[in-house]
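Continuing the batch. This is chain 6 of the set; chains 1 through 5 are on the previous pages. Same settings as before, nothing changed between runs. Recording input and output for traceability.
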Amino acid sequence: MTADGVNWNSPLVRLPPWFPGQMGVPGSDSIDGLRQSCEGKIFYVDPNYPGVSDQRDGTNPQDPLRTVGAALTKCRPYRDDVIAVMQNNAWTFGTPNDGQLLPIAEQVTVTVPGVRIVGIANAGTLGVLWTPSANAGTCIRIHALDVTVEGFTFDEGAFAGCNAISVLWNGTTAFGDNAVIRNCLFTGDVDIAIQLEFAWYCNIYNNFFQQVDIAGIYLDPAGSGADYCNIYNNWFQDCVAAISARGLDNSRIANNTIYNANAQGAAVATNEGIDTTGGRQNIVIDNYFSCLLPVPANGDYDDLNTAAATDSWIGNHCSNGLAITSPT
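Output for chain 6:
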């Protein structure tokens, strides 16, 4: 039942083969006998399913919900709930004859701690396509602890501009700490792929950032920064900025691959790689850059990247050797 590379909160349990459901609540029964655990529930979302409606229970894959937003209203804090979002064929280069043409086109705010939103697609594939529902919309805002997002492709779709995921404090009592974002693709139509604001202990890994317009991972220099984050094993392909993390503290940036056409062509590429200006005590280790060792020159290691004064940049790889200094 689980897709390759997708991890669930707890094992799926095969229980007795019939759930009679609740009278008057469509979809609360299940002939499959599949439930996650005695506490957590799986809510299925598929806008392409015939007759789909948000007026359903959502725990039966044969009676899914239409929107992620409706599924979120059914989740409970730390119950190990999972929102399982079915694959669609809305990708630009998909085959219309295959059907299932509707993407997830929503802007949701997650306020339930411990919930997982999972695109049912193999890790390393395009993932389940998610677009905003308005121009310059943000697909997912996370205002809760311990939220996981995985298995999606984010694209602007029919709208102008798109921010994919924002993990941020809501200004009062709701924080986005310990968010996990993995196995996602962010296309060239995305402006900011992942924005962190006063978010601690976030884990961002195994994602592909393709020619993102503003930044793959972004911290607003005028904002509250982020601490104790782990950013690793991501691939940044010619983004305007890969990791613009001004104000990042006490974090680890490791094993990322950053290709930048300006740096590769010895053109100006100022801070288009990794920039931790204004932060402190970060470890930046074993990343790969398409630039030359510090010369100085346009597009070299010192041009592509800038370190905070107290950072430790260790053994990062350039096109012509190993960089053993922090970039200036």
